[in-house]
Amino acid sequence: MPSADIIERVNAAISAEFELGMERMVPEADLMKDLELDSLDSVDLIAAMEKNFKVKCPEVEARKLRTLGEVHAFVENLLTQHAAK
Length: 85
Known about the structure:
This protein is 60% helix and 0% strand. The protein is mostly helical. The model has no long low-confidence stretch (mean pLDDT 93).
C-alpha cells in the first residue's frame, strides 16, 4: 500500500491540476467515470506526476491506470525504482 505521503501528494497534484475537490480523491475513484478525466487529460496527469515527483512516467503504462489507487501505487513504484538507481 502506498505511503500516506505519496497518497497526499498525488491527491493534491491531481486536485490542483484538474480543479477537483479533495473529497473526490478516494482510492477507488475511477479516473474517467468519477473524476471525469478523458484521454487527453491522461497526458496532463502524466505531466503533473513527472513535475511533482521529478520522475519519468512511462506513458504506455500510465495510460493503463484506471483508478486513483492505481495512480498512487504507480507513483510509489516509480519512486522506489528511481531511488534504487
